[in-house]
Design goal:
Layout (H helix, E strand, L loop, with lengths): L2 H27 L7 H14 L24 E6 L2 E3 L2 H9 L6 E6 L9 H11 L25
Antiparallel strand pairs: 1-2, 1-3
């Protein structure tokens, strides 16, 4: 093993310790210590990304999606006119009080691996970009909101 690879390994070890510390603190603050590490990391990643676009308090439980057939999307935030909406009723509520809708969609994939896997990026892209029409999103959490024309005036 050469000096460069040893230095790279030590750097990764330090990052892992910093990430572990952040994850532990975040888990305690948000009462999610009972979740497995992968799920807690999804919550941390979701909070870190969404917080840059939405400064109000929110629960990561509202944006982290279930496992399984989610096509690589670990969290989804839909912000309409600076309001985080979590269901169709929320979309209707914001639409009823505004003459326009200014949407922000935030898709998060939480990856803990030290290596790059191009197939995961492809799966994520397939989950984010609807195949076909705007009314046919791939993710089951988006299906109720798929036909955006229902909410236009």
């Amino acid at each position: 093993m050469n000096a460069e690879s040893v230095a790279g390994w030590r750097g990764r070890d330090i990052v892992d310790r910093v990430t572990d510390s952040l994850l532990a603190g975040f888990s305690v603050e948000n009462g999610i210590e009972e979740l497995d590490e992968a799920k807690r990391f999804e919550h941390l990643a979701a909070f870190s990304v969404i917080r840059r676009h939405f400064s109000r308090a929110f629960s990561t439980s509202d944006v982290v999606l279930g496992g399984g057939a989610d096509t690589g999307v670990d969290a989804l935030a839909i912000i309409l006119n600076n309001v985080l909406v979590t269901d169709v009723d929320g979309v209707r509520e914001v639409a009823s009080h505004n003459d326009y809708l200014e949407p922000v969609f935030i898709f998060v994939q939480a990856e803990r691996s030290a290596s790059f896997d191009g197939a995961k990026i492809g799966t994520f892209g397939f989950g984010v970009v609807p195949q076909g029409t705007a009314a046919s999103p791939q993710h089951r959490h988006l299906q109720p909101c798929g036909d955006h024309r229902r909410y236009s005036r």
